[in-house]
């Protein structure tokens, strides 16, 4: 049986991982490393190099300052928001149809 009706498994994992960050079960940098593309995954390693003093903060900012490392994360966030809006519309339609069916089933005379 299908577990997720609206979200894909990857989108659900993305949300679960962010909830783990919010609840303190996962580091924010670990989240970014996991959800960045392979090319942009070096962000995490470079950040660790800054912490260890292997590269300077200026070099790090120069390389990662434009925020390109968050591209895939931005895409996932947009996909989830779009699905959320669509799901809200679907739920409203279902509520209206359920009310109509309830009214029909409560009639004393049926066709």
Largest β-sheet summary: none
Stretches where pLDDT is under 50 for at least 5 consecutive residues are: none
Number of domains: 1
Instruction: Give the rounded overall mean pLDDT.
Output: 86
- Can you write the helix and strand succession as a string? HHHHH
Helix content: 55-70%
Tell me what portion of residues adopts beta-strand conformation: under 5%
The termini sit apart by 36 Å
Count the E strands. 0
Could you give a short description of this structure?
The chain has 111 residues and is an all-alpha fold. 68% of the residues lie in helices and 0% in strands. The protein has one domain.
Question: What report would you give on this structure?
Answer:
This protein has helices at residues 9-22, 28-35, 42-52, 57-64, 71-105. It is an all-alpha fold and 111 residues long. It has one domain. The longest helix is centred in the last third of the chain and has 35 residues, at 71-105. The model has no long low-confidence stretch (mean pLDDT 86).
Please specify the SSE layout and strand pairing.
Blueprint: H1 9-22, H2 28-35, H3 42-52, H4 57-64, H5 71-105
